[in-house]
């Protein structure tokens, strides 16, 4: 099934924020990693789909969806970037597309739907036989620092509180 790319109209069947062609361009501009360039078009589409689901499943975006039947979290009305600039209601921010590409690349070596390391919040680790004990309340959420940095200001990461958030 062909990838359906959101074009800013709030498609009800969209499953990606970026096309394979545009993702290829992103990676060409970022060193052409062989983990991406070695994939078939169908594999790239699959990675982009998983990345989209991961984005929308892990971030609460500012503003509101523009069309009640739209499949994805963008486009949005009432959204601003981290500098307070309005984001047009038919726009998918470039940073969302960049984050999707980075997640798709991560997915080539580590399934985005796999279990995670509880935020490296290790209380005790024993090497032989291997044993790891985490602190109470250690996060079960994926640790995605590059994605957090790319998406900064476009919404809040679900399940994480990193300090006081003031909005006016």
Descriptors for this entry?
globular, 168 residues, disordered C terminus, two-stranded antiparallel sheet, single chain, alpha+beta, two-stranded antiparallel ribbon
Task: Tell me what you see in this structure.
The relative contact order is 0.17. It is built from 5 helices and 6 strands, in the order αααβββαββαβ. α3 packs across α4 and α4 packs antiparallel against α5. The strands form 3 sheets. A two-stranded antiparallel ribbon has the order 1-6. 31% of the residues lie in helices and 11% in strands. By secondary structure, it is of the alpha+beta class. The chain starts with 19 loop residues before the first helix and ends in an 11-residue tail after the last strand.
Compute the number of strand runs.
Answer: 6
Distance between termini?
43 Å
Order of helices and strands: HHHEEEHEEHE
Instruction: Report strand %.
Output: 5-15%
Class from helix and strand fractions? alpha+beta
CA radius of gyration = 18 Å
Q: Please bin the fraction of helical residues.
A: 25-40%
Provide the fold topology:
Layout: H1 20-28, H2 34-37, H3 41-58, E1 59-61, E2 64-65, E3 76-77, H4 94-107, E4 122-126, E5 131-134, H5 145-151, E6 155-157
Antiparallel strand pairs: 1-6, 2-3, 4-5
Helix pairs in contact: 3-4, 4-5
In short, what is this structure?
With 168 residues, the protein is of the alpha+beta class. The protein has 5 helices and 6 strands; from the N terminus they run αααβββαββαβ.
């Amino acid at each position: 099934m062909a990838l359906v790319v959101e074009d800013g109209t709030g498609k009800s069947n969209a499953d990606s924020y970026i096309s394979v062609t545009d993702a290829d361009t992103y990676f060409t501009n970022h060193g052409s990693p062989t983990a991406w360039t070695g994939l078939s078009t169908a594999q790239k589409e699959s990675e982009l789909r998983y990345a989209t689901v991961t984005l929308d499943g892990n971030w609460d975006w500012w503003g509101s969806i523009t069309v009640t039947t739209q499949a994805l979290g963008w486009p949005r009305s009432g959204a601003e970037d981290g500098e307070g600039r309005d984001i047009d209601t038919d726009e998918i921010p470039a940073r969302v597309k960049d984050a999707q590409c980075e997640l798709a690349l991560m997915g080539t070596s580590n399934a985005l739907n796999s279990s995670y390391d509880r935020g490296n919040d290790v209380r005790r680790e024993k090497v032989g036989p291997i044993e790891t004990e985490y602190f109470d309340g250690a996060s079960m959420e994926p640790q995605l620092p590059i994605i957090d940095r790319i998406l900064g200001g476009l919404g809040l990461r679900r399940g994480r509180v990193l300090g006081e958030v003031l909005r006016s």
